[in-house]
Amino acid sequence: MNGRDLLQRTVTTIQEMYLKIGDTNGIVSLYYPVGDDGERIKTEFLEAAGSEFPDIVLESLPQRVRIIVSEEDCERISKMPMKGTMKDMTSLANSHAPIDEFRKLIDEKYPGSIMMKSQYIDFDWVVRFPDEVDEDIYCLAEEVGQVTYHRFSKEEYLAFGYELPEL
């Protein structure tokens, strides 16, 4: 991971939070593991944030960083253009759509994507889009007819010891 990727991950996470739960009050703190690369990542992050996000704070902690996003920045980030895939996945989850609706959307709207049964007990389905569409991996779970999802970067997904599904 580098600082620019971490900034993008922060922006996407704030956008997803707003899609899932709507407006929130207060600041948001996000924690990311960085190992021994914390100072390099911090420098790159702050350079990438530059004048666009001058109020975002990054604190170095042992083996991780804490990113603090003000309420004002959260609101501004929530209004920035978002990934269509994330909007669609969140919309379906929020509408309590059955798993077949997820499959239909992916098949029709995102050619070249896959939705496959998971080989891991942690979730039921894995969705992968072509990298030019969305590099994240979406892991879906179905419980009592309700589908939820978790979105992971490839790096995070691989860190769990999972194998990326082939497109």
Features:
Alpha-Beta Plaits; 167 residues; 3-stranded antiparallel beta sheet; alpha+beta; 6 helices; 7 strands
Describe the fold and architecture:
The protein is α+β, with helices and mostly antiparallel strands and about 170 residues long. It folds into two domains: about 5-80, Alpha-Beta Plaits (2-Layer Sandwich), CATH 3.30.70; about 85-160, no CATH class. Helix content is about 40%, strand content about 25%. The chain is built from six helices and seven strands, in the order αβαββαααββββα. The protein has helices at about 5-20, 40-50, 70-80, 85-95, 100-110, 155-160; strands spanning about 30-35, 55-60, 65-70, 115, 125-130, 135-145, 145-150. The chain has a four-stranded antiparallel β-sheet with strand order 4-5-6-7. Strands 1-3-2 form a three-stranded antiparallel β-sheet. α1 (about 5-20) packs across α2 and α1 (about 5-20) crosses α3 (about 70-80). It is globular and about 45 Å long.
Short account of what is shown:
The chain has 167 residues and is α+β, with helices and mostly antiparallel strands. It is 40% helix and 23% strand. It has helices spanning 3-21, 38-49, 71-78, 84-94, 99-109, 154-159; strands spanning 28-33, 57-61, 64-69, 114-117, 125-128, 137-143, 146-152.
